[in-house]
Amino acid sequence: MHYKKNKKAVTGKRILRKNIKKKHRHGIYKKYIKRLLDIICSFTAILLFSPAMLIVAVLVRIKLGSPIIFTQERPGLNEKIFKMYKFRSMSDARDKNGNLLPDKKRLGNFGKSLRGTSLDELPELFNILKGDMSIVGPRPLLVEYLPRYNKKQHKRHNVRPGLTGYAQVHGRNASTWQERFEKDVWYVEHISFWGDIKIIFETVKVVLKKEGISSKHCATMEEFLGE
């Protein structure tokens, strides 16, 4: 009996030491290595995709007019506000009173193609290079959502928002807000190098399959109204 208790204690200590080492390793990645990889990867991607970005920019100018780049304030790390860049994907179509038409009517076939292939998000590479965003992280949402989060949901801002994320490869816009936030918080609490690599590869698969681009009731995603 005494031997079994000692064996359990030794096993417990080994597991504890293993978990501490794992957390320490993940902490180093999160604090130092992740940002370094973001700089290297975003700079390389900008060079590689510059011809594609130029072509998309010309097409946006022809199809939708100016401005080519859509900018919008979003909350980032520690809820600090930054300007996020995207290629414009919707027209400025208005009703007879001068009011913008609903998103569904302003998002034509060209805009749907941009979003379906995620080409509209290529300018976010510059946000990553600047340090506003990361390759992988919770997607940056609207500023007006900040006061609507509960305490747990605010944790999504403990890391830089991402070009892609854990929630994006598990449902994308087809998921409910609750499901997305749960996945965002899970990611924040389990950041790892191999986890990020897996998300990047799964993102490629999701984009190629064009999964979860829109929700069931909206052209993109319904407004988050809080709980």
Question: Got a strand count?
Answer: 4
Q: What percent of residues are in strands?
A: 5-15%
Distance between the termini: 52 Å
Order of helices and strands: HEEHHHEEHH
Strand ordering within the main sheet:
1-2
Structural class: mainly alpha
Number of helices: 6
Mean pLDDT: 86
Largest sheet: 2 strands, antiparallel
Helix content: 40-55%
Overall number of domains: 1
Overall 3D shape: globular
Could you write a compact summary of the structure shown?
The chain has six helices and four strands; from the N terminus they run αββαααββαα. It has 227 residues and is mainly alpha-helical. It has one domain (39-209).
Question: Any overview of this molecule?
Answer:
The chain has 227 residues and is mainly α. It has one domain. 49% of the residues lie in helices and 9% in strands. It has a two-stranded antiparallel ribbon with strand order 1-2. α1 packs across α4. The relative contact order is 0.12. The mean pLDDT is 86.
Task: Please render the helix and strand layout as text.
Layout: H1 2-63, E1 69-75, E2 81-87, H2 103-106, H3 109-117, H4 124-130, E3 134-136, E4 162-164, H5 177-189, H6 193-209
Parallel strand pairs: 3-4
Antiparallel strand pairs: 1-2
Keywords:
mainly alpha, 227 residues, 49% helix, two-stranded parallel sheet
